[in-house]
Amino acid sequence: MQEEKIFIETLTNPKTQNEAFKRLIQHYQKPLYFHIRNIVLNHDDADDVLQNTFIKVFSNISNFKGESKLYSWIYRIATNESLTFIEQRARKQGVSNEDVQQKAIQKLESDVYFEGDAIQIKLQKAIATLPEKQQLVFKMKYFEEMKYENMSEILDTSVGALKASYHHAVKKIEEYLKTN
Amino acid sequence: MKTDLENNKLKSGFKTPDDYFDNLSDTILSKWNGTYNSEIIPKNTGFSIPDDYFSNNESKLIDTILPQKTKVISLKATILKVTSIAAVLLITIISPLFYNASETKKTELAAMNYLELNSEELSVYEIGQLLENEDISELENELIYNDLD
C-alpha cells in the first residue's frame, strides 16, 4: 500500500511523471489490452480504447485520491471506455449495442488476430446472449482469471453477487453450447 | 464443483500483432505529449490587447450597445411647409399680372364714365387733354361725315 502511494506520487510529480507513466504502461498494457479486447473483440478497436484509457488515466491521475486501489481504478476506466466505445458505435450506426456485438463476432472468422476456431466463435455467440453485466463478470473470471475481490472493486458489486452471476452465466453458456 | 466449461477451459482466441507491446508505451507517451505538451499546442493563444483597454472601454461599449435616439421628420409638416411656400410663390407671381390687367380696365372705364357724365361741362381744352391724337382724328372724321349728311 505504501509502495503504491509512493508510485502515485511519482505519477503526479512533473519531474518523475514521464518515467512513471512509462512504467505504468509497461506494467498494465498486456492484462488491460486483453480485458478491453474481450469486450470490443476487434484488435484495432482494442488498441484505440487501450490508448485512450492510458491517456485518461494520465489526465486524471491528479484527481485520484487513493480511495480504491490504483489497479481497480485503472480497470474501471478501461471497462467504461470499452462500453462507451460500443455505445458510440451503435449510436453512429443507428443500431443497438447487441447488433454491434453480433457484427464483431461475425467478423472474427476473417480476423487475422483471432486464432480461435468454431468452438471459440460459438462461445462468443453464447456470451453475447447474456446481459451486459453478466458478460463482463464471465469474461473477467473465465478468460482473465481475475479474483472476485478485485472484480468486486472494479464493478462495485459484492463478491457474493459476482459469484452468483458467474454461476448463472456458466450455466446459460453450457446450455447454449449443448443446444446450438 | 467445476462444470464442463471450467474443466475443459477454452481460450478466447485473441492475439495481437507481433511486437505490438514492444513500442506501445512509446506510442502512447508520444500521443500524450503531443496532445498535452505546450510545445505542440501552446497554452498561450498569442492574442494581446491595448493597455487600459478594459478600464476605459465600459462607457464606449455602453454608447455602442445602447440604441441611439433617431430624429423623426414629420412628413405632414414638410408637405404643409412646401405647399405654403408654393402657394405664396404662386400668389406673388400671378397677382401683379392680375392687378395690372384689372387696373388698366379700371382706368379706361373711369375715363369713359368721366367723359359721358361730364362732357357737357368740360371745356374744349379739358377734352383735348383727355383725348389722344387718334381719338381727335376719329372725332374730326365723324364731324366731316356729319356735315356731309
From TrEMBL, chain A:
Belongs to the sigma-70 factor family. ECF subfamily. This is RNA polymerase sigma factor. The keyword DNA repair does not apply. It comes from Flavobacterium urocaniciphilum. InterPro entries: RNA_pol_sigma-70-like (IPR039425), RNA_pol_sigma-70_dom (IPR014284), RNA_pol_sigma70_ECF_CS (IPR000838), RNA_pol_sigma70_r2 (IPR007627), RNA_pol_sigma70_r4_t2 (IPR013249), RNA_pol_sigma_r2 (IPR013325), RNA_pol_sigma_r3/r4-like (IPR013324), WH-like_DNA-bd_sf (IPR036388). The keyword Transcription applies. Residues 24-91 form the RNA polymerase sigma-70 region domain. GO terms for biological process: DNA-templated transcription initiation. PROSITE patterns: SIGMA70_ECF. Residues 122-173 form the RNA polymerase sigma factor 70 region 4 type domain. The lineage of its organism: Bacteria, Pseudomonadati, Bacteroidota, Flavobacteriia, Flavobacteriales.
UniProtKB/TrEMBL annotation, chain B:
Keywords: Membrane, Transmembrane, Transmembrane helix. The keyword Transmembrane helix applies. The chain crosses the membrane at residues 79-99. The keyword Membrane applies. It comes from the Bacteria. This is Uncharacterized protein. It comes from Flavobacterium urocaniciphilum.
